[in-house]
């Protein structure tokens, strides 16, 4: 039988009457899940009100309940283990992460390294050897000027010809738009599918009308329609005059009285 691996040897120090495990190497961090949680000083902490960086604690708080608990700390360790060459990079708490510390032997590490280089290039720091929290604080800048960024939103600027761009703009005018990663308005799949569904329904309705024209007056419908068309101008003029009269702008309003006519009684009283 193969010899069992030796358990990790922990070092402890006493502070405030408590024995605390010392995390000073990458091996210590890697074996944190094996440390009996009865030996942890605390099993949870609040996201706010500590000297630790609040944004870091928010990222650790996976269930967004306002507290970071032991399983979430272990999940963060596992996340980093899949992406770093050595978890010892976490111990000093340096303000920047060297790109050389990111693993290229795992899919997660290669994806992280590619993303880091893309971010630095977008900031004009393609030759930088490390990346900082400030570099990743606003990732929208990474996508500025890119036609396709993988977010599923297609802005008009991504079109390869004027006709396609005009089609995207007209679709956005009908179905609305959604901002992409860089903040530009564009068209996503949900809006496009909803637009096509509405166009299909309208086309079916239009074709049904062509196949079976509406005949509200039966056989007399064509004659009725012709009669309405013959007086349409007069009917429209009638309703226009009614609208003008309603707001006091009739044809006689403001017109000069005939020569020799007496002024209106209201004017005489004034």
List keywords for this structure.
two-stranded antiparallel ribbon; 270 residues; two-stranded antiparallel sheet; 8 helices; 8% strand
Terminal CA distance? 121 Å
The best one-word shape is elongated
Let me know the number of strands.
Answer: 8
State which percent range the strand residues make up: 5-15%
- Spell out the helices and strands N to C: EEHEHEHEHEHEEHHH
Gyration radius, to the nearest Å? 37 Å
Question: Which regions are unreliable across 5 or more consecutive residues at pLDDT < 50?
Answer: 263-270
In the sheet with the most strands, the strands line up as: 1-2
Regarding quaternary structure, what we see is: single chain
Decide which structural class fits the backbone: mainly alpha
Largest sheet: 2 strands, antiparallel
Helix amount, in percent? 40-55%
Number of helical runs?
8
Q: Kindly state the mean pLDDT as a whole number?
A: 84
């Amino acid at each position: 039988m193969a010899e069992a691996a030796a358990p990790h040897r922990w070092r402890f120090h006493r502070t405030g009457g408590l024995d605390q495990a010392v995390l000073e190497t990458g091996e210590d961090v890697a074996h944190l899940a094996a440390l009996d949680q009865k030996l942890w000083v605390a099993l949870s902490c609040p996201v706010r009100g500590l000297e630790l960086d609040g944004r870091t604690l928010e990222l650790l708080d996976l269930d967004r309940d306002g507290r970071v608990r032991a399983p979430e700390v272990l999940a963060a360790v596992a996340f980093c283990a899949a992406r770093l060459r050595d978890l010892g990079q976490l111990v000093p708490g340096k303000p920047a992460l060297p790109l050389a510390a990111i693993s290229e032997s795992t899919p997660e590490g290669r994806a992280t390294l590619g993303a880091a280089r893309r971010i630095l290039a977008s900031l004009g720091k393609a030759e930088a050897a490390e990346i900082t929290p400030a570099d990743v604080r606003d990732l929208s800048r990474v996508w500025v000027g890119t036609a396709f960024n993988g977010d599923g939103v297609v802005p008009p600027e991504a079109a390869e010809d004027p006709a396609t761009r005009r089609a995207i703009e007209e679709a956005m005018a009908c179905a609305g738009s959604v901002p992409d990663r860089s903040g530009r308005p564009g068209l996503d799949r949900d809006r496009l599918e909803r637009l096509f569904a509405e166009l299909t329904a309208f086309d079916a309705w239009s074709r049904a009308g062509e196949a079976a024209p509406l005949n509200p007056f039966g056989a007399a419908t064509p004659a009725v329609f012709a009669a309405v068309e013959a007086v349409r101008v007069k009917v429209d003029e009638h309703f226009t005059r009614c609208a003008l009269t309603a707001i006091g702008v009739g044809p006689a309003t403001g017109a000069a009285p005939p020569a020799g006519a007496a002024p209106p009684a209201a004017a005489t009283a004034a």
